[in-house]
Amino acid sequence: GVEVGPQPQGVVRADTLDKMRKIVKHGLDFVQLFNEGREFPPCTIEVFKIMEKVDYPRNKNDEVIAIIHPKLQDQDWQPLNNGDPLFLTLDGEVIAYKGDCTVYPTFINEAAYYEKKQAFVKTVKMKLTAKHIRSSVL
User: Fold this and answer.
1) Residue in 126, 114, 125 with CA at minimum distance from that of residue 54
2) What are phi and psi of 48, to 5 degrees?
3) How would DSSP label each residue in the chain?
4) ω into residue 8 within 30 of 0, thus cis?
5) Could you tell me if 106 and 76 are in contact, meaning their C-beta atoms sit under 8 angstroms apart?
6) pLDDT (tens digit, 9 = 90+) per residue, 99-130?
7) Where are the transmembrane segments (predicted)?
8) Mean pLDDT, rounded, for 42-52
9) To 5 degrees, how large is the angle CA 17–CA 72–CA 16?
10) Whose CA is closest to 87, among 71, 108, 66, 65?
11) Residues with catalytic annotation?
């Protein structure tokens, strides 16, 4: 499966649909070239590994007591460093990120994850290296 977003539930955006079509086309092109015996050289790519799902701050009654800070909103895949603002309480208090490394939040304030008690997901940036490949069936 391919998930391309973000986009609101029940909405079809032309730009997002176009991205999805391009991704699927590249995937099919790769499969065709691989099946034809094309050799692909080694490569290194950057990926984001999910580390932790982060919930909204809650009180003892399990009620949300803070919202996503405006400086974090719409900043998916952007670096988040120790001391950067995460949440804003209804009283105007800033709750900052307390971490020992830079993380890259994603799925920030997504409506689909609200009921799952997920304000965002912390990811870390990594590099993966693949050896060259070629189909052995010709």
Assistant:
1) 114
2) -120, 120
3) --------TT---HHHHHHHHHHHHHHHHHHHHHHTT--B--EEEEEEEEEEEEPPPB-TTS-B-EEE-TTTTT-TTS-B-TT-EEEEETTS-EEE---SS-B--BSTT-HHHHTTT-SEEEEEEEEEEE--B--S--
4) no
5) yes
6) 999 999 999 998 878 889 999 999 999 999 99
7) none
8) 95
9) 5
10) 66
11) 3
Cα separation, 129 vs 46, in Å, equals 9
Query: What's the mean pLDDT in 12-35?
Result: 92
Q: What is the dihedral of CA 55, 56, 57, 60, to 10 degrees?
A: -80
What residues does each domain of the chain span? 1-36, 43-131
What residue has token string 């120790």?
82
Pairing of strands 43-54, 66-68: unpaired
CATH architecture of the domain covering 43-131? Single Sheet (2.20)
Contact 106, 10 (CB under 8 A): no
Query: Cβ contacts of residue 40 below 8 Å, gap of 6+?
Result: 33, 34, 132, 133, 134
Predicted TM-score (pTM) of this structure = 0.78
